[in-house]
Each structure stands twice: as C-alpha cells, then as structure tokens.
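Project standup — Tuesday

K.O.: blocked on the structure for the chain from last sprint. Re-posting the sequence here as requested.
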Amino acid sequence: MTQTEQFTEPAVRSRPHRWPPGDGVGVFHDVRLAVARPEHRRGGSLEARLTERYLAALGAAEAGGQPPECWRPLFQYRRHPGVRPVQFALAGLHAHIAHDLTLAVVDTCRTRDCEPAALEGEFERVGDLLTLLEERIHDELLPDPDLLRIADPLTHLVSSWSLERAREAAWSAARVLRQLHGSPALAEEFRQRTDAGAGLVVRFLLTPAAGARTPMWLPAQSSGSSTGAISS
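H.V.: unblocked you, prediction finished:
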C-alpha cells in the first residue's frame, strides 16, 4: 500500500478528489496527500489528530457549513485566476500549522492528561513532515527561479512566510491554551483570536497578482489579529 493510499483510508477516501485542475483546495490537498506517512493511522498520535483537524475543516466546507476562519479564505479564493498554485499551497500549510497543529497539540494533551512538554518529540517529528511538505511545495509549484525577478511580487510573498515561525507560534499558542483549560471562556476567546489571526496571514498569502481582477462572487474579508509567521 502506498503512502497516498494509507492517507486516504478511510477518512479521505470518503471525500474523493473531484476538484477541477487549478482548484486552490485541490492544490493543497494533493501536496498534503503526497507527504502523508503511515504513522498518522495511529489514532492517538499527534499526527493523526493534525490530519483529523484538516479533514474536519474540509468536511465542514464540503457540507456547506463554515470551516474554521483561517481556512475560509482558501475556500473563498480557490478559483481566483490571479492566485498562483504556490500561494494556495502555502496558505493551506499556514492554516494547517497555525490552527490545526495548535489544536492537535491541545487535543492530544487533553486525551493523555499531559502537558505540551511531553509531546516535544512528536511535535518535532510532525515538524519534519511539515518541512517535507514545504519543500515539495517549493519544488513542484514555485516557478523556475530564473523566471522570477527579485522584485517579482510572488518572490516577496513567498519569501515573507516562515515555516519555522509558524511552528513556533503554534507551539506557543498550544501551551497557552493548555494553561487556560481551567478557564473555558478565556480559552475559547484565545482560540478564536488565534484562528482569526491565522486567517489574516492566509489572506495575505492569497493576495492576487498585480492587475488581476477580483471576482464579484468573493465575500468581504473579516478582521482579526495576525499570528507570527511573516518574516520582517
């Protein structure tokens, strides 16, 4: 059985990929599938819970519901002609880290009755997976460097995002959320603000190319505080 088959059984197989070529959601889904590992099938692992969070967002959107705020821009802009495939993939990756990974850590801590420090080893292994995902995005979706000028907006956009900063922010947010488990109202407020902040970064990553027209069907943008993944 291939890695792709292992990732698609059983959860993803129930959501067959019927997206047309160039669909932004499909772009991220394809690269996420390509780096999936057998370990995710262990139900209690951090990687399994990370996958479950992504599938929950995907399922909510496909059912006509509302996915987490950080995922909404990807679904809203998925057919925008001015957004490049590499932007869709990085936007999905940021939502996957800033939201899904943060909550996956909290979910795992709650289930095991432990603190985030006990998951550092697993967190690093998941980080290795995410690094592979980023490398695949750059190798397969980023235009030939020889074709990109240093002043090209896409060059600036892609280089402004940092996987390491996104991971660090997710880890910090998870630690705070875990500390707030005794104060449900505060924990929920922090979770919502983290989700909204991640959504702002996702919208930034999906900035259409200069001169591209914004389709009339795109809804208005929401507001929120950003999370630390944009390099200065």
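K.O.: great, moving the ticket to review. The longest helix spans residues 85-112. The CA atoms of residues 157 and 192 lie 26 Å apart.
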